[in-house]
Specification:
Strand content: 15-25%
Shape: globular
Distance between the termini: 34 Å
Structural class: alpha/beta
Radius of gyration: 24 Å
Bound molecules: (2E)-2-methylbut-2-enedioic acid
Length: 558
């Protein structure tokens, strides 16, 4: 129960009847811009230029990510890659994009390895709740989809990439259906389509409120049944190159054994996902534990530019209470079917379906200007008036269509069908990332990328449901491109890393931070190499090895 907020709840209930009948407040384009500049985390000056690599002094990047791009490798100095695994295609990442790529390579006569630092399927894909966009409605079209996403992305989208996304929604939904994915449908067999923020008509297909989990379920089953060799608990810590600019493999850290595994591949597809667990500006996040920007760091050292990396999505409805759920997603779909966003005074202050960055900024403004609700655990938020959903759609609707949210809050004695829940923006999505072309090629020969690790498709503000589409469209597309133009096998060296290290030494002579980080800082987990096996790869026992700690992190450290 939320007894501690009963005064505010009383106000909310007192205005419900009137709000239910009222029109949502509208905001003009100029005011929206002002709101963004004043309150959205991307605009608050917590970003900086990096001084090294392809983005050097060219565009701002959040400090937390910039620090990792300017860090040294986890690989001990002196490490010599010797080929432990030889494969045609190496996929890094076991979420929706990596799995889609693996499935598109099935039957191509190529050997395929998929390395994932956790288990297959552990990814942001499974955290996606509200749906996947596809222009299947009677008056819809890929063009209309394009136009909505382009406006939503503030026109900063790469039009070629966005066009590919929108033109492939129908065949992607068919492909998922063939794999056994069950999306909500009407009695006549047509798909149910929900509206989403910024969509000009209903275009979001869903499996209740666990769409990503359903999609990942079928992708994962299919990969496990395929000839792809899955390397669970194998985290990519560096890419290998041939000394002449082609990426030719990767060094993986086997988390079970602690040893390093060098893989030689003719093509590499990076699909390592986002970076929400870097928790920019200490924001809570809706992201999976593995989302710490690994792929960005790896590709960056190979000379791949990052685009729109100043842009992150703060999903307006992250949970603010109870504390155990802080940051977890409350799907936008609940807003799209009637739940209103209301401040501590019981006033509706923004259109719930305005684009995410503007809505998030409006919520942050309410809290900053003391019109939010303070929780006993020192957070603050505004109300999402969820009981309105049943009022509008009939009793039992919320429970039937959004069982995930009901189940999650029930554990804390909160029934969202009967009482509002407290929300605050949560770090949800990395809008920018590795620059790719429409076949998923990066700027480094031999290296492709797909999914959240890439940038350009969504501009600087992604619309709901376009990421589940992105991973399935571009994961498969990258795989098709790899098949068409598979490079020859080339030697594995650390030439690019060595050059990067030289540059790093010039700019930061005393750099001690290592990346990729692999896990959120607050877990205290770090790369621990099995000393004996690693030594075999070294010319001499290097300093970095002797510095490796075998102690668990000190829980009392300040
Ligand atoms: O694409 C998303 O981010 C999504 C579907 C989120 C949600 O609110 O459910």
């Amino acid at each position: 129960m939320i007894d501690w907020a009963k005064d505010s709840l009383y106000k909310l209930e007192a205005t419900r009847e009137e709000r239910f009948r009222s029109k949502p407040p509208e905001i003009g384009a100029d005011d929206a811009q002002k709101l963004l500049h004043q309150y959205h985390p991307d605009y608050l000056g917590r970003q900086r230029n990096v001084r090294l690599g392809p983005n050097a002094d060219n565009g701002e990047i959040p400090h937390e990510l910039a620090d990792l791009l300017e860090s040294d490798s986890q690989l001990p100095v002196g490490f010599k890659p010797s080929v432990d695994i030889e494969t045609d295609v190496l996929i890094l990442g076991g979420g929706g994009a990596g799995a889609s790529a693996a499935l598109a390579l099935e039957g191509a006569g190529l050997s395929v390895h998929l390395a994932t630092k956790l288990q297959l399927g552990d990814s942001n894909t499974v955290m996606a709740e509200g749906g996947i966009q596809a222009s299947l409605g009677a008056n819809d079209s890929p063009r209309r989809h394009f136009s909505d996403a382009y406006v939503g992305g503030h026109g900063n989208n790469d039009p070629d990439l966005l066009r590919v996304l929108c033109e492939n929604s129908e065949n992607t939904i068919r492909w998922l259906g063939q794999l056994g994915c069950i999306l909500d449908s009407n009695e006549d067999g047509t798909f149910q389509l929900r509206p989403g923020g910024g969509t000009s008509l209903p275009r979001v297909l869903a499996c209740k409120d666990y769409t990503g989990l359903e999609i990942m379920r079928v992708l994962k089953d299919a990969v496990l049944l395929s000839s792809t060799q899955t390397l669970h608990n194998h985290a990519a810590i560096e890419l290998l190159d041939d000394g002449e600019g082609q990426v030719t493999g990767a060094v993986l850290w086997n988390r079970n054994e602690g040893n390093l595994v060098s893989v030689s591949a003719r093509a590499i597809i990076i699909a390592t996902g986002g970076s929400g667990q870097l928790r920019f500006q200490n924001f809570p996040t809706s992201n999976h534990i593995g989302a710490v920007g690994d792929g960005l760091v790896l590709a960056y050292r190979q000379g791949c530019k990052l685009v729109n990396s100043d842009s992150h999505q703060y999903h307006p409805s992250g949970t603010a209470y109870p504390e155990a759920l802080a940051g977890q997603l409350v799907t936008e779909s609940i807003r799209s079917i009637g739940a209103q966003v209301v401040n501590a005074e019981g006033s509706r202050f923004v259109h719930e379906m305005t684009v995410r960055d503007v809505l998030a900024a409006a919520i942050i403004r309410e809290v900053s200007e003391k019109r939010g609700v303070q929780t006993p655990t020192h957070r603050a938020g505004v109300w999402l008036d969820t009981p309105l959903v049943d009022l509008q759609n009939g009793e039992g609707f919320l429970r039937k269509k959004f069982p995930g949210i009901i189940h999650r809050f029930k554990r804390y004695n909160i029934d969202p069908a009967k009482q509002p829940i407290l929300i605050y923006p949560t770090l949800h999505y990395q809008n920018g990332g590795i620059k790719i072309d429409k076949d998923g090629r990066t700027e480094a020969e031999g290296l492709w990328a797909a999914g959240e690790v890439t940038g350009g498709i969504h501009g600087t503000n992604r619309l709901m449901g376009n990421s589940l589409l992105d991973i399935t469209v571009f994961g498969r597309r990258a795989a098709m491109s790899v098949q068409k133009s598979l490079p020859q096998r080339r030697p594995v060296t650390l030439t690019r890393l060595n050059k990067f290290r030289e540059g790093l030494k010039n700019v930061f002579p005393r750099q001690s931070v290592l990346s990729p980080q692999l896990f959120p800082a607050l877990t205290g987990m770090k790369v621990v190499l099995a000393e004996k096996k690693t030594k075999e790869h070294l010319n001499q026992h290097s300093e970095s090895i002797s510095q490796v700690s075998f102690e668990p992190p000190d829980p009392f450290a300040k």
